[in-house]
């Protein structure tokens, strides 16, 4: 596995890992995460694909900027796709899947395929909505623990028991560290609106959606909306898995991803 950096058009340095042989695959991770979350998957893909997994700006080894926008995320993806080469495949998870969707609306994938793992579209109103000011206030007051509690309960909509379990897990400190970066992403999600018909233009692209059957109702319905909006797209379901299938069942996730990529 090789650790390297590349420069985005606005001068932002992006940290990425490259591993494997075969067709190129760029992986865009989700919120409160970094590239290391995808190491279990790329370990399982390395015999079939050259994987490029990068830290989105503002986390891990990637630099942040004072100004943030979806356009900056799209430019970062374009930088990684150009690095990976013509006809590279593109995978996005959660907020990263929304970023890759927006990228695909503006850029051709050539013969590459787009795979979306549970993009959080606003299927029944704003995703953050009234919870966003409370989340912002907790972050600005220096209490990321409380902020995450608000977001997980009111935005992601997981149970109190699941939140309590996460608080006791070794990943909680890292989630708290990354929590401030989620605010701006929640703003961008709600700004996208609910006109999913604009995805119809991706009809000529090779688009697949992956979801876990045990994911939240909002994410489950979001996957349905994408498949319905993009003619010819394909849906892959992972039984009893949730939004973190890439971490919890990497073998099964990787097999579904290989199918989506036509391997």
TrEMBL record:
<protein>
    <submittedName>
        <fullName>Alpha/beta hydrolase</fullName>
    </submittedName>
</protein>
<dbReference type="GO" id="GO:0016787">
    <property type="term" value="F:hydrolase activity"/>
</dbReference>
<dbReference type="GO" id="GO:0016020">
    <property type="term" value="C:membrane"/>
</dbReference>
<dbReference type="InterPro" id="IPR029058">
    <property type="entry name" value="AB_hydrolase_fold"/>
</dbReference>
<feature type="domain" description="AB hydrolase-1">
    <location>
        <begin position="25"/>
        <end position="247"/>
    </location>
</feature>
<keyword id="KW-0378">Hydrolase</keyword>
<dbReference type="Pfam" id="PF12697">
    <property type="entry name" value="Abhydrolase_6"/>
</dbReference>
<dbReference type="InterPro" id="IPR000073">
    <property type="entry name" value="AB_hydrolase_1"/>
</dbReference>
<dbReference type="InterPro" id="IPR050266">
    <property type="entry name" value="AB_hydrolase_sf"/>
</dbReference>
């Amino acid at each position: 596995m090789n650790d390297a950096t590349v420069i985005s058009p606005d001068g932002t340095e992006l940290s990425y890992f490259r591993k494997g042989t075969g067709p190129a695959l760029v992986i865009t991770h989700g919120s409160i995460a970094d590239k290391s979350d995808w190491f279990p998957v790329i370990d399982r893909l390395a015999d079939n694909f050259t994987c490029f997994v990068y830290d989105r700006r503002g986390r891990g080894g990637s630099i942040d900027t004072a100004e943030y926008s979806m356009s900056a995320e799209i430019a970062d993806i374009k930088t990684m796709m150009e690095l990976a080469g013509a006809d590279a495949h593109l995978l996005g998870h959660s907020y990263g899947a929304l970023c890759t969707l927006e990228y695909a609306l503006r850029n051709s994938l050539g013969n590459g395929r787009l795979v979306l793992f549970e993009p959080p579209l606003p299927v029944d109103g704003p995703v953050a909505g009234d919870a966003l000011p409370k989340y912002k206030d907790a972050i600005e007051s220096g209490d990321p623990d409380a902020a995450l509690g608000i977001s997980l309960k009111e935005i992601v909509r997981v149970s109190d028991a699941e939140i309590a379990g996460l608080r006791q897990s070794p990943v909680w400190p890292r989630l708290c560290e990354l929590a401030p970066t989620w605010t701006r992403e929640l703003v961008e999600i709600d700004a996208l609106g609910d006109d999913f018909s604009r995805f119809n233009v991706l009809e000529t692209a090779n688009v697949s959606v992956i979801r876990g059957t045990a994911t939240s109702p909002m994410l489950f319905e979001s996957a349905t909306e994408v498949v319905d909006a993009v003619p010819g797209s394909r849906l892959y379901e992972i039984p009893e898995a949730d939004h973190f299938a890439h971490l919890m069942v990497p073998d099964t996730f990787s097999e579904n991803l290989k199918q989506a990529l036509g391997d």
